[in-house]
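[Help] Beginner question about ligand-bound structures

Sorry if this is basic. My supervisor gave me a protein sequence and a SMILES string for zinc ion and asked me to "get the holo structure". I don't really know what that means in practice or what format the answer should be in. Inputs are pasted below exactly as I got them.
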Amino acid sequence: MPEPNDKLIVALVECPRCGNPFMIKKGQKRSGELICDNCIKLEQRKKQLADSVIESQKKIESSIKGYKSSLRVAKSQQTKQLYFDKIKKTSTVLNKSVELLKKIEETNDEKYIEQFKKLFEKMKKEYAENK
Ligand SMILES: [Zn+2]
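Answer (accepted):
No worries, everyone starts somewhere. Holo just means with the ligand present. The predicted complex, written as structure tokens, is below.
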């Protein structure tokens, strides 16, 4: 008698994240939470986007540091004002990125990812324009 096909021994379970039913192999054990493929893909997209935001945050932070040291050595009031404005605007962008990161981490909905990507593009543009 042939061995029973593994793929046929399945169980239907409910995804703890999205509630959609999905199939698992019986006795299948994955590390961590057992979630459906859609949720796994969503997690990957979230991570990718979050990593890009974190990467940008590092650049923004070092820009702010740079402006601060320029402000410290600036002689004229006009130049001081210039760097002060840059620090203020860049800090706003940094704050937005922190909020965005929080939103990305908290979402469990695919439809927001595109929206977050657009926000991120907008944020990067604002940052570049202020450079
Ligand atoms: Zn799911």
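A couple of things worth pointing out: Strands lie at 10-14, 21-25. The chain has a mean pLDDT of 90. Feel free to follow up in the thread.
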